[in-house]
Amino acid sequence: MDFLDLPQAPLHPLSLPWLQRANVEAAILRLDLIDPLISGNKWFKLRHHLQHAHDAGAPGLISLGGNHSNHLHALAAAGKRFGFATAGLLRGHAQDTPTVRDLQALGMQLHWLGYGGYRARHEAGFWQPWQARYPGWYCIPEGGGGLAGAQGCGLIVAQARAQLAGIGWDDYSAWWLAVGTGTTLAGLVLEEAGAHEVHGALAVPRDQGVPQAVAEWVGSRGYRLHDACRGGFARIDDALLDFIDACERDTGVPLEALYTGKALLALREQVEAGLFPPGTRLIVLHTGGLQGRRGYL
User: Fold this and answer.
1) What is the pTM of this model?
2) pLDDT per residue as tens digits for the range 122-147
3) Rg of the Cα trace of the chain?
4) Pair 179, 210: CB distance under 8 Å
5) What is the pLDDT of residue 1?
6) DSSP annotation of 95
7) Which residues have a Cβ under 8 Å from the Cβ of 25 and sit 6 or more positions away?
8) Host H or E run for residue 253
């Protein structure tokens, strides 16, 4: 099926004053540009899940997320495009947001779990009533996570390497990306197999279990996690928004505040603290999710 043919994300030089002052080079892999609806790392995370659902003859797909979820947005679009029905299990109580309206327009059936019901998503037996309600449907972990999602994200490495010569690089030093579930980071670590370190800017609190999940998938080597959540998941403050505004003026690259914006701010902090020596070449991953900007702008 054509979801196996991933669009090419362009790799662009990333010029920012604080990088130049530290003599650190960066290029940004624009996953936000691969598709208007199945945007960013979501296509890569869904690729293997969609293949497994297709091979199993599943009539539909079920997954979880919040009322601004980039993952559910991409899943609903993928379902409509590739012929799967979709159902979304949402955190909290019914709300009217631009993302929710898109999910409904794309044909996704929505079920609001409340907050306690959503917290139960990791408990044994959580999926049983939903599998009974939607027999034969394929269940996808929150955010497209799990090993299948990580394996799909390994293809991101090949996309970047194929474009190094085009920006005048023969190699790179490391990766830098936002981390939500840890799936994309795990995919890069598996694919790199120690060749280049992967730095993850953790956009959720550490007590959400992401470090443990990553360690379960890929072990403890080949990556480093840096705190970037600024006090909590989806926590946005004026300093972050001012930083994003300045970055967008300097680069022309649109950012969102939950993931890539926080990741870049954390990168500036680490660059100014001297984490990377002069001459370092970083590939920064733009993980997409720009539709979520509508939730706070």
Assistant:
1) 0.92
2) 899 999 999 999 999 999 999 898 88
3) 19
4) yes
5) 59
6) -
7) 13, 19, 169, 279, 280, 281, 282
8) none
Residue 138's identity, in one-letter code, is Y
Q: What is the DSSP string of 142-203?
A: GGG-HHHHHHHHTHHHHHHHTTTGGGT-S--SEEEEEESSSHHHHHHHHHHTTSSEEEEEE-
| Least trusted range by pLDDT, from 186-195, 230-239, 242-251 | 230-239
Strands (E), the chain: 11-13, 25-30, 60-65, 85-90, 109-112, 138-139, 174-179, 197-202, 223-227, 281-286
Percentages (nearest 5) of helix, strand, coil residues in the chain:
45, 15, 35
- At 174, give phi and psi (nearest 5°): -165, 170
- C-alpha 226/C-alpha 76 separation (Å) is 31
* Residue 295 in this model has a pLDDT that exceeds 90: no
Q: Over range 114-123, report the average pLDDT.
A: 92
